[in-house]
Amino acid sequence: MKQLPDARVERWLGSLALIIIAVISLGNVVTRYITGGSFSFTEEFSVFLLVVLTFAGASVALRRNRHIRIGFLERALPEGPRRGLIVFQALCVGTVLGLVTWFGAKLAWQEYHWESLSAGLGLPQWWYIIWLPLLSAAMLVRLVQQTRARLNGSLDDEP
Fold it and tell me: Where is the Tripartite ATP-independent periplasmic transporters DctQ component domain (predicted)?
């Protein structure tokens, strides 16, 4: 089996988000232990970075065909209907991701236009929201790659 392109950008982004979460959380724990107070920005940044980590990880899992699903029906079907089921699955997932991308971009634009600020730190809200449509669009790209690889047989359905 040939080596398939991987979701390198998303892997790096997810790793970076996880490292930053760990560092700011550790810093917050140490600061709280020593001073009795905590950093005010850690919760807002941690939640934002967890969303980035989740979408980046989902994109990697999508590309590597590691999402949880029940493959019983796929394995039971002959080749023709099986390929149709793979296309149907991709269309359903693509529709959901397309909606997330569209409405996420619309929300980010509205937050930019209205100049909304975050409640905790007063940063522009669109800085956080723009990652939603960007990473869901990346997932759409990975979905197309995964579907093509599954249809041409270069990606196993079972790990």
Answer: 21-150
What is the C-alpha separation between 105 and 119, in angstroms, rounded? 21
Which DSSP string corresponds to 40-106? SSHHHHHHHHHHHHHHHHHHHHHHTT-S----HHHHHS-HHHHHHHHHHHHHHHHHHHHHHHHHHHH
In a domain, 61, yes or no: yes
**Which is it for the CA torsion 49, 52, 56, 61, positive or negative?**
positive
Mean pLDDT of 9-18: 96
Higher local confidence (pLDDT), 148 or 156: 148
Domain that holds residue 114: 8-151
Number of domains present in the structure of the chain: 1
Q: If pLDDT is split at 50, 70 and 90, which confidence band does 39 have?
A: confident
Look up the pTM and report it: 0.86
- Judge whether 133 and 158 are in contact, CB under 8 Å: no
CA distances from 55 to 49, 86, 135, 141 (A): 10, 22, 6, 13
**Is position 139 within any domain?**
yes
Residue 29 maps to a domain? yes
